[in-house]
Amino acid sequence: MITNNSNRIYFKGYCRGIILIQGQVQFIPVDLIDYINEESREINIEYENFISQNQLKVFNCDTINFKWDSYSIISNVIYELSDHNDFRIINFIQNVLLCKLIIIKINDSNRLNVLLKFLKSEIFVEVYLIIYFTIENKDFFKSIINFPNVTKIFINSDNFTLSSNKIYLRSIPNKYSGNLIHINPNFELISESQYHHTYFNRKLYIGPNGEIKNAPECEETFGSIKDLDSVEDLKEIISTPAFQKYWFVHKDLCDVCKHCEFRHMCVDNRMPFERADNQWYHKIECNYNPFIAKWEGDPGYRTLSECGVISNENEFSIDHDRIAEINKEIWEEE
Ligand code: SF4
């Protein structure tokens, strides 16, 4: 990565690079990044113009001190409300774990009523509500919208007519699963991504039976909140290396992603798996192929295997010749 200040940061992928200018993504050729990095180079007028127009200077990425830390022991929680729920746990998450965002999933209107009473008096962190039932009463819904700390409401309704910038009408999966890749070019995420997994890091999931996990996608469960002697025990569970196993699996350790220009601005909920060589792979393929810079559905898109890229529990290998041929075919046609 090269930069001249925090407003301009560059990332090199396999097929193309990215420059961020004041938070905006602009794609640039890999050759331009190589050109900037060369100490003695033959002058390329086009590149020189680009460099001078954008006032670029070059820094070795190893010298950039990307410090990231957070006062939050857990920065975001996904909490599925159910019968056993005890709102003291939300207080604990907020006041002791110093969480910034609580995502609450609710599938019952009585529970929502109880929750709203609690939110009114006790909660000051940001809350997203994911509501899995139809709310007929518009006044009731308006009262939810008016909660200042409820900043997003995801509701599964086709005929919903109320409008608010807090409401997200969408079809909500009942389980968090599949491939939810989200690109977000902000400096905090870029800093966090240097040494952390930007989805699993400092996340906590409490499931419908009180099960404690790092995230809903994880297999490993660390007991149940129903069995805790005290809410304080939750802090101990979270501080164990086993609970934090995925927090430090940053994209430079992951097959495919390590070659992707989006790797420092990507939030990806796929489970990573460790191979014997201490590198990580995914069993689900991303819908972006960084070797040809194409998203699934784009004209010319090919899967990894069609490009000769193998990533599994045994190996990671790249057929550079095949990719060069495909890129020639795709990009020379366009
Ligand atoms: S390959 Fe996909 S998941 Fe990996 S960094 Fe790129 S966009 Fe994100």
Summarize, please.
With 334 residues, this protein is of the alpha/beta class. The protein is built from eight helices and 19 strands. A hairpin with a 4-residue loop joins β2 (8-12) and β3 (17-21).
Low-confidence stretches: 1-6, 173-178
First-residue to last-residue Cα separation: 28 Å
Ligands (ions, cofactors included)? iron/sulfur cluster
**How many independent structural domains?**
3
Cα radius of gyration in angstroms: 23 Å
- The number of distinct helices, counting runs of at least 4 residues, comes to 8
Largest sheet: 7 strands, mixed
Number of strands: 19
SSE ordering: EEEEHHEHEHEHEEEHEEHEEEEEEEH
- Give the rounded overall mean pLDDT: 85
Please indicate the percent range of residues in DSSP E strands (runs of 2 or more).
15-25%
Q: What is the percent of helical residues?
A: 10-25%
The coarse silhouette is elongated
Secondary-structure-based class equals alpha/beta
Strands ordered across the widest β-sheet: 9-8-7-6-5-11-12
Task: Spell out the blueprint of helices and strands.
Layout: E1 2-5, E2 8-12, E3 17-21, E4 24-28, H1 30-37, H2 45-53, E5 76-80, H3 88-95, E6 101-106, H4 109-122, E7 126-131, H5 138-145, E8 150-155, E9 167-169, E10 181-183, H6 187-193, E11 203-206, E12 212-213, H7 232-238, E13 266-268, E14 272-274, E15 280-282, E16 288-289, E17 294-295, E18 309-311, E19 316-318, H8 320-333
Bound molecules: iron/sulfur cluster.
